[in-house]
Design a protein that fits this description.
Chains A, B: Belongs to the PurK/PurT family. The structure is a homodimer. The first copy, chain A, is α+β, with helices and mostly antiparallel strands and about 375 residues long. Chain A has eleven helices and 22 strands. The first copy, chain A, has three domains: about 80 residues, Rossmann fold; about 55 residues, Dna Ligase, domain 1 (2-Layer Sandwich); about 200 residues, ATP-grasp fold, B domain (D-amino Acid Aminotransferase, Chain A, domain 1, 2-Layer Sandwich), CATH 3.30.470. The longest helix of chain A is centred in the middle third of the chain and has 18 residues. Chain A is globular, with a radius of gyration of 21 Å. Chains A and B meet through α1, α10 and β19 of A and α1, α10 and β19 of B.
């Protein structure tokens, strides 16, 4: 069935903010999207052309959900892969493919894949249990990463020296040499079924000079053309070696020696691409749709320099979300808040993001600071 | 009730394509929009957070619809004004204001307003019936325009000479001197409750050199800085004299003598601003929301040169819409189709539009031609 026909349906596992922004892009092309999420108040619930409340981790739910869809995609990678495999075996298009999701879901397999395919990544050893970590003290300082189940910083433990070994995970994990990096950069690459591959410009995570936390994302990355091209080449090579159809967000370390190493990848739209909605000709969300629907990929050129600030629930507040300072930030040229439609806030919950579009770098930094100091999610 | 709170609701009269693009913009700011349209398959029906099927011309329907809304706005001006006035008198915010809609709905009152307020417009006489038209043959060539009920070219009749007088409308109308114009240009201006006023860059309707029909819209207009500024000043003056809150699309004639004259205005988002979604930092849809919600207006600067082509139902086809050539046009950099989600096509029905973003003018024209020759809505 052609994509642009009345009965075509795209199934989307997950109804969070990434799905929400994908739905906005789908409206332009009039793609009928049906979303699945266990939360009846998920960010997609009210605006999806069709919304099913149910678990994307449950075999029966996912299998039934996919029955009337021509193509099935995701906005979260932790989904029931057996159901997706069965749907795929029965002729449904599932993009990204379940085999790719499976490989990426387990950080041990993911890291081994890089090694087997000569993709640059920090040195590591697989550690089946805490004893195996203890046996590798010569490898420290390192990060101990759980093979499965880690998310948003969970499942990662720094082991600086032998004294920290008691912190090691008891489950199968890996020990990755700590990289003395100069910058963290990222590239989003799209690949469609026809094998067409396109990257977005390389972006950079800017760290707070004192607190050493990611402060905001900056696009394009402040790196040499050579480094930027190297990062994009690695992203394309990774997407091609995985054979992924869809979007792949590749997070990379730029070491102090000018080496570019893969940190980890996400097989979907990503926080590091949110600015593309306002700063690039094609957004990552439209690009994802084009990729999984077998359409030609869009022009990823940036028309503006941009920064992206995450909008997190303020510490100390839980309950009905209220946004303090919206009018103040909206009065600044080039400041665009994106609210995810989550009714309830809690400390550090991702409630939205703000894209700042400004070609003057000093002003951009000023505007980012203003947004960070002014806009608060309270209850 | 603050705009960015859980129970805030924006009522939208009309659920067509203009409403659809407004809904997309509303998602960014998480504005809960409730739309009203008589067509259960209207472009907004599936994606509005709340959709009410009913007539926006019916007093009771509109009055009941507005009860739980904090602000009520429109995407079509032909709505029940008595209901809006009653809602306004009971404390609801109705933007644009019903009095402004009333003035604009009647072309006779609209023209008289320009004259009374020294706003430049083509000379005219009010004609109560066909006899009055006949009595003004010295005014020809002219356009006879119906006071009320005209839409999309209907209700307008060219009266070139005395021989055409039998074509004159019998209802109250006006006779407007035909303007020997060099170009048709347009400016969209936004005004919020606080009186802040911002224009988008002046755009131009490009006519086909042979067929003398509007071929595409081009932004920015190919006119001098002086003319562009004059057009924007007229737009702002008109918005301020009307006291409108919301968007005002001002269509203007640029005469061969360099005069800029108001042709007509629309108190809402407009076809001449669709390209702003992809070519300007703030789109007309977001700007409309900011204006009617009392928020600071966004930066209207264009980051790219653009053209907009309407996508009309192909002559000779009626029924379930099919889109021929989508993959071909999507393969061209900078070509962005917007489909309005109308399931049924008929000859010349507005089914979508295509924005072409391209800073090289020769290439822009080439891409426009390619789109026009390639993309077809058939059944």
């Amino acid at each position: 069935m052609p994509v642009f026909s009345k009965n075509f349906k795209l199934g989307l596992l997950g109804g969070g903010q990434l799905g929400r922004m994908m739905l906005q892009a789908a409206i332009d092309l009039d793609i009928h999207v049906k979303a699945l999420d266990p939360d009846p108040n998920a960010p997609c619930a009210k605006i999806a052309p069709e919304f099913v409340c149910g678990s994307f981790l449950d075999f029966d739910t996912v299998y039934a959900f996919g029955q009337d869809c021509e193509v099935i995609t995701i906005e979260i990678e932790n989904v029931n892969l057996d159901a997706l495999k069965k749907l795929q075996s029965e002729g449904k298009k599932v993009f990204p493919q379940p085999e790719v999701l499976e490989l990426i879901q387990d950080k041990r397999i993911q890291k081994q894949f890089y090694r087997d395919h000569q993709l640059p990544t920090a040195d590591f050893v697989l550690t089946d249990n805490a004893d195996a970590v203890a046996a590798n003290v010569d490898f420290l300082p390192a990060f101990n990463k759980l093979g499965r189940g880690g998310y948003d910083g969970k499942g990662v433990q720094r082991i600086s020296s032998a004294e920290d070994v008691h912190l090691a995970f008891t489950e199968p994990s890996l020990l990755e040499k700590a990289v003395d990096f100069a910058k963290e950069i990222a590239v989003i690459v799209a690949r469609n079924e026809q094998g067409e591959c396109k990257t977005f410009p390389t972006v950079e995570c800017v760290f707070h000079p004192v607190h050493n936390l990611v402060e905001y994302l900056f696009a394009p990355a402040d790196v040499s053309e050579e480094i930027s091209e190297k990062a994009k080449a690695i992203a394309i090579e990774t997407a091609e070696k995985l054979g992924i159809v869809g979007l792949l967000a590749v997070e990379l370390f730029l070491t102090k020696d000018g080496e570019v190493l893969i940190n980890e990848v996400a097989p979907r739209t990503h926080n590091s691409g949110h600015h593309t909605i306002r700063a690039n000709h094609t957004s990552q969300f439209e690009q994802h749709l084009r990729a999984v629907l077998g359409l030609p990929l869009g022009d990823t050129t940036a028309h503006s320099t941009a920064a992206m600030v995450n909008l997190l629930g303020e510490d100390g507040y839980s309950g009905d979300a209220q946004y303090e300072g919206m009018s103040d930030v909206l009065s600044v040229a080039g400041v665009y808040p994106f609210l995810y439609g989550k009714t309830t806030t809690k400390p550090f919950r991702k409630m939205g993001h703000v894209t700042v579009v400004e070609n003057d770098l000093a002003k951009l930094k000023e505007k980012v600071d203003f947004v960070k100091n002014t806009l608060k999610v309270i209850a």
